[in-house]
Known about the structure:
Blueprint: E1 19-24, E2 28-33, E3 38-42, E4 57-62, E5 71-76, E6 80-85, E7 88-93, E8 108-113, E9 120-125, E10 129-134, E11 140-145, E12 160-165, E13 173-179, E14 183-190, E15 193-201, E16 217-223, E17 233-238, E18 242-247, E19 252-257, E20 271-277, E21 288-291, E22 296-299, E23 327-328, E24 335-336, E25 343-347, E26 352-358, H1 360-376
Antiparallel strand pairs: 1-2, 2-3, 3-4, 5-6, 6-7, 7-8, 9-10, 10-11, 11-12, 13-14, 14-15, 15-16, 17-18, 18-19, 19-20, 21-22, 23-24, 25-26
Amino acid sequence: YTWGSPVLIDVNLVEGSVTEQASCGRSHNAIGTDDGKVYTWGNNFFGQLGHGDRMDRKTPMIVELKTQVMIRDIACGYDFTCALGDCQLFTWGSGKYGVLGHGDEKDRLSPCLIEDLDSITGMACGGHHVLAWSRKPAELVYSWGLNSSGQLGHGNSKSAFSPRLIPTFSNKHIISVACGAGHSLAVTFTNESSLTYACGSNAFGQLALGQCGQGAKVLTPMAIPSLSTGLRIQEVACGSMHSLARSESGEVFSSGCNAFGQLGLETKDRFLNRFTAITSLKDKNPRAIACGGMHSFVMCPKKWIKDEEVTNCMKCKAVFTFMRRKHHCRNCCLIFCNECSSKRIAILHLKLKGPQRVCEACYSQISGHSSRNSLRG
């Protein structure tokens, strides 16, 4: 699904394949399937769709690779795309700042293998830069692309057109990496503890390394003190100018620009320069985090939402009153007004055979499944 308002995308996948991952650039999209295929659509001015031309696509189209590789990970930068398969990294799209890693700034209209890299096991894309890491024969982290704020971690602000090693991370076990518009985060694990490093722009406190402001930057990765006091960080995520971190114990921390409330904190401060726990997520057991340019996303297990946590219908946004009461959808566990949850249906996958109150979206989904199952029968 994509949104504004959620709309089902009809992806003409190879028969039997299932979508496993998705990534969005500035104006293009990519999905990866369980059979190692990549599909893209959207704007193609720089060739970021990888179809050998610059024609936009309104519907997903399979990307043809020159070699038979099973793609297991995809990521989109602003105007380029990366795909990882069989420990090989392919890039295509805008070559500005050398972000494709081929030693120049030329656009690539089709997937091209980065010859300088081998045994790559993971990668992350920022707006105009990339970090990639390997496990064998040694644990190494490479970076390339735009480096105006030191986001590559090379100790300078010179852009790199080809992958270069980040010495700080040599022989450190990497468990999570994220890239923003002008900053990078990486989590290492050793001796039962984790360290979270940051480099690049700290203009809005997104590095959580203290002093911030216009022109503030860190050229070499530094450990973040506020995430180094016994916390075991499992995952980091970067927006354009803010950052998130998720711990093993289920806490989520945020730092950086807060102009649109993207930090999820009960503060009106426009920025914070220290990672702070998001208290509203306490006991929610977050499983994954993600950032858009100016917004954040946290995925938690489906759970009955408490009445006191919601003041407006989660569909029509009307304020609840004595007359407009709260009702839980028995399928998605969200809270709606009567008008938005007036339908009832059996929820067989939850072993609820009698008619249950559900929201309109769940009613359509469940009744659609029932119809398809009866046709198959």
